[in-house]
Amino acid sequence: MKLIITESQYRRLIESEEEESLLYDFSSSKEYKIYKDDPELWDEIFLKKKKKDGINYAGYYIKDNVIIKGDVDELEYLVKVDGDLDLTNSKIKSLPRLSEVGGRFDLTNNESIKSLPELVKVGMIDLYGSNVTSLPKLKEVGNIYLKFSKIESLPLLEIIGGGLYLSYETDEKEYPLKYLPKLREVGFDFVLSYNRNITSLPSLEKVGGGLDCFKSTITNLNKLESVGFNLDIGSTYISELPKLNQIDRSFYLSNTPLLRKLEEEGMGHDDIKKKYGVVRDVYY
Question: Which of 102, 155, 162, 231 keeps 20 to 30 A from 16, CA to CA?
Fold first, then answer.
């Protein structure tokens, strides 16, 4: 089932004083109307109220997939969605309290929303062609898609459970992201080849898949400890990898200051392989 919130339903939720009268329509093979006094169905969604700093605070917590449609300007009280949140065809301009989306948060080509000021965690977020410029509190995502987005900085992002693709050859606007100062871990492949916007990943410690930096402008991977597949820093300006001790497949480091430094120290193929914990081979 997918939950549809329309303008009239939202206004009813906000204006009603009787929680028992609140209802949503579900869109599936047929339409459902769910009332709070129907306990079997109301498990799907509920209204959560609490007091904070002496102020009454209401937030809607939705345990289903949500599609927002119609002319709703904002969902002031939407705090959390367990399932998917689809805003691809929405005119909504603001989600000022939304802090978490458990499933897919789809903002593809959304032109209305500029910022998600309280979003901290999301299962997957797709920002392709959207006008979102700010995700100031985002700390953890399963996957994030940034092609032709307007995001230049993710200042608090620490963990990406899946992969991250930021590779391009000609159009820098394809991936405008420049700053990932807190990123510690990427669970799968991290692809930066040919990227000329990102120069430093000062907090990155672990990549679960491969890390491809070939011909990128990256210079700082000083906290990197382990890579779960290939590591390619070929034709970059990387001069040191002081904490790296595990590469689960191969290491590519041709045409780099690091290779020249290692050769000046008299290190050969086997020495480099041992120093960085390379499982398969070293290529230079």
Answer: 102
- Asked whether residue 192 is assigned to any structural domain, the reply reads yes
What are the tens digits of pLDDT across the range 159-216? 999 999 999 876 777 899 999 999 999 999 999 999 999 999 999 999 999 999 999 9
In terms of residue numbers, what domain contains 253? 62-283
pLDDT of residue 45: 37
Between 28 and 80, the more confident residue is 80
Residue 22 lies in a domain: no
In a domain, 163, yes or no: yes
SS3 for 197-258 is CCCECCCCCEECCCEECCCCCCCECCCCCEECCCEECCCCCCCCCCCCCEECCCEECCCCHH
Q: Decide: 262 and 243 in contact? Cβ < 8 Å.
A: no
Number of domains making up the chain:
1
The Cα–Cα gap between 51 and 237 comes to 54
In a domain, 123, yes or no: yes
pLDDT of residue 84: 86
Q: Tokens 């907090």 map to which residue?
A: 203
> What was the pLDDT predicted at 28?
35
Kind and range of the H or E element at 118? none
Our separate counts of H helices and E strands in the chain read 4, 22
What are the distances in angstroms from CA 222 to CA 55, 149, 161, 204, 245? 46, 28, 21, 8, 12
Q: Would you say 86 and 68 are in contact if contact means Cβ atoms under 8 Å apart?
A: yes
